[in-house]
Target: Deoxyribose-phosphate aldolase
Amino acid sequence: MTSHLDPSSITGHTPLDATGLARFVDHTLLKPEATRADVEALIAEAAELGVYSVCISPSFLPVDLSNAPGLLVATVCGFPSGKHHSAIKAAEAARAVADGAHEVDMVIDVGAAKAGLFDAVEADIAAVRAAAPAPTVLKVIIESAALTDEEIVAVCQAARSAGADFVKTSTGFHPAGGASVHAVRLMARTVGGALGVKASGGVRTAADALAMIEAGATRLGLSGTAAVLSGLEADAGY
Model:
């Protein structure tokens, strides 16, 4: 990717500044070694940066948002392998919502997708959707780097049929890699605006972030949010 993507290409005539880009971001901390003190620091940084939400492991819920008005909380479900029974994923999602999560990012059974069992993928998503109904936002992590284009399309269609709100590229933990511009563009074209698209995994620079948005991402999962936003400011000459 180019290191100096023109921000005006993302929003037409108005360049996307750091404040605008921050509103795309789920500020993320999912490291296994994370502590509650780390999560508290994440929330404080999220409030300072003006991001949309924080994304944290479910064991840290509930969290205190009294010093972060307007900040939303996302968590993960069936993470990171997706190799959980649907009933377990559903129970995990229901517990997360009861503990204050506004959004749930679930992992599909990637092996089922690789085997062409897309009805099973849809049923898995539907089980979580039933356990965490609207207004909870449900994002479906598909591990796009591990899938063929045809599998990406089929999984996105399954997510839409199951009532999900977003499709999401990656956990960030799969050895096949994270988000790519190609996958985001394909996912966005497949869902056609009916679902959001979250690019997550390996988005580390302002150029990466802008390229994902240009490809159709409507949300970004970032762990190095401050560096991305400061990089945008630097490229724009702020």
About this structure: The domain at 23-236 is CATH 3.20.20.70 (TIM Barrel). The CA atoms of residues 9 and 15 lie 7 Å apart. The first strand starts at residue 25 and ends at 29.
